[in-house]
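Action item from last meeting closed. Structure (342 res):
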């Protein structure tokens, strides 16, 4: 039996002989999908040059280096986020994506700005989770002026949308949290609110949506002024203990920012597990356990893999074909967990 020829390969792949020759030579001008089609056909017919085609296709794949700046490395949520981003980068089939993921232990605006600028010098696009601050905004504007696209991840970096955003509609998230508390509470009472830092736009919008729902549908409840946890579990525990001590008629608690583990610890230590309606974020070991034992009522979570896929594909698009990156904003649906569906 004669071995398959280039013409046989072209016929099997549904392309011209010239296209097969360009693939074999590793020449430019052949779309990745077409290269993969030729490679697949070569494998199916046992074409003698399959190895050469695979090597040429591998060498011709676009290569990208992207930077990611996340918050504190000791927080499980950001480790989960980093893992989702790495998985999404590995799953890209038509390009090689190298990710440089860094974590911010020092959350000061000056450190955030400095780290973002440093990261951008070696990357074709960066993805940033940070609080809004003039120092940070100025640094990110400098980065985009230098031609490096900047994506906001999890929390928006601007109200004007000049940085594309991948994350949730946090106004809706806040209203969902309010709906849960208003409808699960057996009787109206006071509602405590814990914010990590209102400079994170997602947390600010969480609170705005939360209050708007109660203002519209549940005016019999009293919403207390938010207490800042500064993204610290220890401070969150202290603030929760303060709420329990000062408000005997506390009916619910909304943890709209970091520090959920501290709030849950305080509720258990004070013997208040299951006596309040508690809404917080993410499905992690600590929140899963709290949902199961009744300390927490509802967890609202980011669909991390979907968000990671959107971020990686958005950065590839921005790096390969510069355009109005504001159009690359992706709002993903949030997930809702209770004891009954985990």
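Sequence:
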């Amino acid at each position: 039996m004669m071995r398959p020829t280039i013409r046989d390969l072209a016929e099997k792949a549904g392309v011209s002989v010239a296209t097969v020759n360009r693939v074999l030579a590793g020449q430019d001008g052949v779309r990745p999908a077409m290269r993969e089609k030729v490679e697949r056909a070569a494998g199916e017919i046992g074409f003698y040059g399959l190895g050469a085609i695979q090597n040429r296709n591998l060498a011709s794949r676009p290569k990208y280096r992207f930077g990611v700046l996340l918050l504190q490395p000791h927080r499980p949520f950001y480790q989960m986020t980093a893992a989702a981003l790495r998985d999404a980068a590995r799953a890209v089939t038509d390009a090689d994506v190298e990710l440089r993921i860094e974590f911010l232990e020092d959350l000061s605006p000056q450190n955030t700005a400095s780290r973002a600028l440093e990261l951008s010098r070696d990357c074709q696009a960066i993805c940033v989770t940070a609080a809004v601050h003039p120092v940070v905004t100025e640094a990110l504007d400098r980065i985009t002026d230098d031609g490096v696209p900047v994506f906001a991840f999890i929390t928006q970096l601007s109200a004007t949308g000049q940085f594309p955003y991948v994350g949730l509609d946090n106004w809706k998230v806040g209203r969902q949290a309010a709906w849960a508390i208003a409808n699960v509470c057996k009787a109206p009472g006071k509602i405590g609110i814990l914010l990590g830092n209102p400079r994170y736009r997602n947390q600010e919008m969480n609170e705005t949506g939360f209050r708007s729902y109660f203002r519209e549908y549940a005016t019999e409840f009293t919403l207390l002024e938010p207490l800042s946890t500064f993204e610290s579990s220890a401070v969150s525990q202290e603030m929760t203990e303060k709420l329990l001590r000062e408000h005997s008629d506390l009916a619910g608690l909304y943890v709209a920012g970091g520090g959920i583990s501290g709030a849950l610890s305080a509720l258990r230590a004070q013997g208040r597990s299951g006596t309040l309606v508690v809404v917080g974020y993410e499905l992690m070991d600590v929140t899963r356990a709290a949902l199961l034992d009744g300390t927490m009522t509802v967890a609202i979570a980011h669909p991390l893999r979907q968000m990671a896929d959107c971020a990686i594909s958005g950065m590839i698009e921005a790096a390969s074909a510069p355009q109005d990156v504001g159009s690359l904003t992706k709002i993903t649906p949030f997930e809702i967990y209770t004891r009954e569906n985990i």
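Note appended to the action item: The chain is about 50% helix and 15% strand.
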